[in-house]
Write a structure and sequence with these properties.
With 219 residues, the protein is an alpha+beta fold. It has four helices and eleven strands, in the order ααββββββααβββββ.
C-alpha cells in the first residue's frame, strides 16, 4: 500500500460555526467541500440511501467519504445483524504523496489499496461475532483490523479475486473478497477516484456504480 499511515476516524473537524448547525447540515457541508465526485450505487438500486461520514487530512482537505445503501449497519445482536441488507460505497480522492496545504507535514498517497483498507475497516466496524463476549471485542477488532490492513496491502494475493462491475456504464475491474462477515471490493473509477465498497446481505455481483449528481438530495 502506498500510504505511510492509516486513515483514522472519519470525523469532520468541528468549529464554533459548525457546532451551531444541524447535524445533517454539517454532514452535507463536508461532502460539498470535496474536490472530487462522489459515487454511489447506480439507478438499479431503488432502496434508501444516506450520507455517512467524510474523512479529512491534517490540513482539513476532504479525502474520502461514504454513502450508505439499504439497512443501516448495526453491531447490536438484538438488531438482527445477520438479516441486514446493506452496501456502503466509499469514494476516495486519488493523490500522490504531497506536502500538506499548511506546510506542516506530508500527506500520504491514496491508492486502490487505501480504498480497500477503508472498506475493510468499515465492514469490521459493523461486525460483532454473536458468540463473543463484549469485553473481548476490542482485542478482536484490533486483530481483525490489522489483518484487513495486511490484506489491503496485497491486492494481488490469493485472498482477492477480480470482479468486473460497471462504473458510469463502463466495465471496471475490482479487487473482491468475501468473509463470514460480508464482502469488500475496491477499484478505480475512470476519472481517477478510488472506489471501495462493503456490504452484507446484498450480492456484490449485481452492483453498479455511478456519480452522484446532487449530493444534497441525500441530506
Amino acid at each position: 500500500m502506498e500510504t505511510t499511515s492509516r486513515v483514522g476516524a472519519e470525523d469532520v473537524p468541528s468549529t464554533g460555526t459548525a457546532e451551531r448547525k444541524p447535524a445533517a447540515r454539517r454532514t452535507v457541508d463536508g461532502y460539498l467541500a470535496a474536490t472530487f465526485p462522489w459515487y454511489g450505487l447506480d439507478e438499479a438500486f431503488t432502496g434508501p440511501r444516506r450520507l455517512m461520514q467524510v474523512g479529512t487530512a491534517a490540513d482539513g482537505t476532504v479525502q474520502h467519504g461514504s454513502i450508505g445503501h439499504g439497512d443501516e449497519p448495526s453491531v447490536r445482536a438484538d438488531a438482527g445483524a445477520e438479516k441486514q441488507r446493506f452496501a456502503v460505497v466509499v469514494s476516495m480522492a486519488s493523490s500522490p504523496v504531497r506536502h500538506s496545504g499548511d506546510g506542516t507535514g506530508v500527506l500520504d498517497a491514496t491508492t486502490v489499496s487505501s480504498a480497500a483498507w477503508l472498506a475493510g475497516s468499515g465492514l469490521l466496524a459493523c461486525t460483532w461475532p454473536p458468540q463473543m463476549d463484549h469485553a473481548l471485542r476490542d482485542d478482536w477488532l484490533d486483530q481483525q483490523t490489522e489483518t484487513a490492513f495486511e490484506l489491503a496491502d496485497d491486492l494481488d494475493g490469493p485472498a482477492w479475486s477480480v470482479l468486473s462491475l460497471p462504473v458510469d456504464g463502463v466495465p471496471v475491474p475490482f479487487h473482491y473478497r468475501e468473509s463470514e462477515f460480508g464482502w469488500v471490493l475496491a477499484g478505480s473509477a475512470p476519472g481517477g477516484v478510488h472506489i471501495g465498497a462493503y456490504g452484507r446481505g446484498m450480492s456484490a455481483y449485481g452492483l453498479g456504480f455511478s456519480v452522484i449528481g446532487d449530493i444534497t438530495a441525500y441530506a
